[in-house]
Every structure is written in structure tokens, then in C-alpha cells.
Specification:
Blueprint: H1 16-24, H2 29-46, H3 48-59, H4 68-84, H5 88-105, H6 108-124, H7 128-144, H8 148-164, H9 168-185, H10 190-209, H11 213-229, H12 236-249, H13 253-265, H14 272-288, H15 292-308, H16 314-330, H17 334-351, H18 354-370, H19 374-434, H20 437-452, H21 456-476, E1 481-483, H22 484-502, E2 507-513, E3 522-525, H23 530-541, E4 547-557, E5 560-567, H24 571-581, H25 584-603, E6 613-619, E7 626-636, E8 639-640
Parallel strand pairs: 2-4
Antiparallel strand pairs: 1-3, 3-8, 4-5, 5-7, 6-7
Helix pairs in contact: 2-3, 2-4, 3-4, 4-5, 4-6, 5-6, 6-7, 6-8, 7-8, 8-9, 8-10, 9-10, 10-11, 11-12, 12-13, 12-14, 13-14, 14-15, 14-16, 15-16, 16-17, 17-18, 18-19, 19-25, 20-21, 20-22, 21-22, 23-25
Amino acid sequence: MLRSGIDDVSALNNDPSLVFELVDSQRSALQKLVFLDRIIPDFIFKSPAIATRLLSIQHNLSCFKEFPDYQIKHFGNLGFLNNQQYSFRTSINAYSKARNLIEVHGDISQQVSINIDIAGPLINLQYFDKAIECLDRAKHLLQNSPSLVLTARLLCREAYLDLHLKKDTSASQYFLESERILLEQRSSTFVNTYFLNLVQSGLGRIAEAGSEWDKALMYYLQIVERLLEDDIHSRLCWHYLNIGRCYAALDKCDQARDYFYRAINEEIDSSPKARASAYANLGFLDNDEGKFEAAIVLYEQAEQIFRSQESPEYFNVSNTLRWKAKAKIELGKGEEGLQLLMDSHAAANSAGSYQLKAEIYKDLASFFAEQADFKNAYEYQLLHEQSLEKHTEKYNQEFKIGLEVRYQTEQKKRETEMLKLKATQLQLKALSAQMNPHFLYNALNAIQHYITSNEVKNATKYLAEFAHLIRKSLEYSDLEIISLEKEIDFLDNYLSINQKLRFEDQLEYEIIVDDDIEEDILGVPTMIVQPYVENSIEHGLRTIDKGRIRIHFKMLDENNIVCEILDNGIGRLAAAKFIHKSGRAQAHRSMGTMITENRLELLHEAREKKIYVETIDLLDKKTGFATGTKVLVQIPVVEVQIR
């Protein structure tokens, strides 16, 4: 009797028939649906052919449409499988069905995940606008439901988008941050392994572009080691090919050959294009070593595969024929070599490549020069120069179009960010207008006490200060940028009122500005520090007798200032308990700091770092008890104002 459940599908890889027997052994359609849902994800990575059949069985089950949750996972798996097999449009179609179902039946985490997934094939098809929409949607949802793993996947997709847009620096930064998160999470799921491989493959591509072959090799070897350890063959053929190319570039020919043959002999991930490229690369190695007969055989195998594709790879066919022609000529078979060069030229025409045609004309010019046929040599040399000019003209045109695409993409991203920023400004206005109720109540209550006690001088003084603070709060809420000097003056006014009216001189504060900061010239986002100062007061200092706050502005670089907010409060753990007991004012302030962090993320346009606010718990080294909190806020210098 066959078991109805299994703990590990890896044992089934060697006996595919057993898989389908197990499916048939399930007593009802629903049991089959549940069983298939369990085993399909593993087979997508370990045996795509079996996964394809299983997905078809799952879709055709009579109860399939009755269970939206299983439909969501089915179409998600189908989209992932098609993306792995380079069927990008089919992948988008399946992912779109999953997304439509998730919008009705799914949760936030599923919405984030599907938008990240669908961005992959969109980027590969260069539908950059739609990819940006998906990634922006995922980013927005992540703010409401944070997840480090999903953040890492999002960063991976953003990196590939930038890689396609020729922004290697930002792509590298996104890749490295994504890699850091994925390695720290130590998740063993196949999907996370897949994204880690994607990240390191992208880092390998960037290293190759800079001719850092050792570095690229390191990334590719790590990927293969991880895949073999988990018995995953997804895109393994391409990874073998990449390793072989790196070894060849490093003149380590034996190792290069080993990996090219691994690419050829890989059975499960049988990518024809990768195998053909491996044959061609082996031919190049033999050609360099003078093994021309062996090279010709390898070139012929590569050419046959390139031609047999549904859409023939004419560029690669032309290149392969060209190198085969060179080998023939080296063997003294000039007529055969000449015919192959002509065939290569025909393939280059089909590929529409002036660059290839220029190289072929140069080879033909050299061939006829060797034959002392200087008339033909001269004519082909002219054709070589003309093709080079056309290639340069075409390249410049494509480069111009590429720049336009990148410009339009960047413009749309900026427009999206500005819309978000305007929405955030409206939220800031609402918060600024209402201030913290504890602060308002205590300040007004203290002023009332001065009035009823007939202390007219103090009542007048602090009422004027309070009115000044409220007026400035409302005034600044209409601005996005003010001078650092005004920001500091606002903080001083706010802390002074807290000190005198709320804490009755039991609050000490200090504002320090480094000498190299010209606070009357530098422009900063409005009221960017006040929410964190108020957070210190409400959470850290409110329940202690003698509170201290120190605010220190330091220049980080020409584009950024760091503000350090240090208090001697009760610390975050004790504050969390206090928040749980009360609630409303704390909810207000949590929203304020969250909005401020969103503003900071939008205002750091280069986004070289993902962390703009860092909170550090200060602990007594001996007792381990909290001695306060330190918050570091990285503030962009948005504008330089005129004195």
C-alpha cells in the first residue's frame, strides 16, 4: 500500500513513476489537491518536467476552482516555473491570475510577494514602467507589514532593474544589502536560496563588467556549491558556463574545460543555449592551443544547437561559423574557410549586426591579402570600414534611445516619489497642527497656574513663548525646507517650554552644533528632529525625576548631517510597558516618527544607505540596566540658502 503522505520528495526524483502513483493513490480530488500543493514547490526546483505535469493535473482537478487559496499557490508556482524556463510572457500571465485572486482572498504578505515575483519577468522583457509600479506597490505594502526576507527580495529586483538601466553602482548596493539580509536570515527555503543565487549572480555580472574575474568566479562557485548541496538544478547549466568563462579569462584552461563539460552534460537543467555556448567556448580553447580539427567539431555542435532553436540564434551562428572558418584556414583549407566566412556573413545579415559584418569583412580582407589578391583585399577593407561606421551610428542611436528610456524611467520614479512626499507632507501638517496632547495640556495648565497665582510677568512671558512655538509649528508645516538655524531655534523653543512649564526645571537640555556647520546657510527638511526629541520626552523622561537631553549636530559629509539625540531615560523596554498601559499619545508619536522616517527615505535621493535612523539602547556595563537611549538621525542637506 502506498503512503498518502511523504516527508521528503527528494527520494522521488529517481523514480518519477512513483510520484504519479502517489497522486493517483489519494482517495478524493481534494486530497489530491492538498497532496500536489505539498510536493509541487520542491519539484519546480529539482525536476521542472515533473512539476509541469503535476501543475497540469492540479489545474484539471474537479475541485480546483472551489479553493482560492490553492489556486493562488498554483498560479504562483506556474508563474515561477515559467520564469525559470525563460517563458516570461507566460509567466506574467500566470502571476497576474495569482495576483487577481490575492487581491480578493490574500493577505498583505502575499500581495508583497506576488508583486516582487511579477517584476522579475517584466524586467527581463524590459517593461520597466510596469516593473517599477509592481516594486513601488510592494514597497508601500511592506511599510504596513515589514518583513526582512521580503525586503531582501525587493532589493534584489530593484538591483536587476538598475542593472538593466546601466546603473551598476546602485545595483551593486542593492545586491549587497539583499545578500546581507538573506545570509543573516539563514533561511533554508528553496525560494530564499533562489533569490540569494540571483543576488550573487548579479554581483558576478557586475564583477565581470569590471574584469574582476576572481571576484566573479567566487560568486559563481558559491552559487553552484549551494545548488549541489540542496540537489537543485535550476539554471545550473548557466552557472557552470559562467564559471568556465571566468576560468578561461584567468587562463586556467583545465578548470575552464571541466566546467564547460559540466554545462554540456547537465541533464535536468538542459538549457540548449547554455550548452551551445559551452561547446563554442571549448572550441575557442582548442583553437588557442592549435587543436584546429577538434575545435571544428565543437563549433559544428554549437552551430547545430544555435540553429535548432525556435528563434535561431543568428548572432551566435555567425560567430561560430567565423571561428570555424579561421580553423579551416589554419589547416590550409582556404576554399572551405572562404565559404564559411560567406555563410557567417549571411548569418550576420540575419542578425542585423554591423559589428559582426565588420569583423567578417576584416577576416576576408586578410584572407585575400594572404592570397595576394589585393583588389579583393582592398574592397573588403573598405566594406570593413563602412560597416564599422554603420555600427557606430547604430550604437549611438541605440545608446540615445537607451538614455531616453532611462531618463523617462527615472522621471516616473521621481514623480511617484514626489506624490508620496506630498502625501507625507499632508500627514505632517495634521500632526503638527495637533501636537502632542500631553505637552499642550501641561503647558497651558502651567500658564493658567501663573495667571491664577497673579504671576503676570511669568504668565505673559510663557504665553508668548507658547504662542510663538505653535505659530512656528503651523508656519513650518507649509514648508518642506528651512534653514538649520530655524530648526534649532524651534527645538530650543520647544525644549524651553517643556523645561519651564511641564517639568518645572527638572529637565536639562543642551543643543550642540559643530563648528564646521553653518546653520544659517544649510537647508534641511522641516521639523525633522522634533518628533524624536518628543519621543525621548514622552517615552524616556516622562516618569523620571531629573531628565537630561543632549542634541548634537555633526557634519557627516557634504550632503548629510547627523543629529545625535541622547537622553538618560528609562529605555525602550520599560517604555514599551508604559505604552501598553496608556496608548493614545504614544500612538501619536509612533506615527510621527514613522512619517519622519518615510520622509527621510524619500529625501535621500541617492539612497546609498538603507538606514537613516538608528536607535541604540544605552546600558550600564555592570548591571545591564537601561541608562538611556541614543538616536542617530541622518539628515540630507536639501538646499543651500542665501544669507
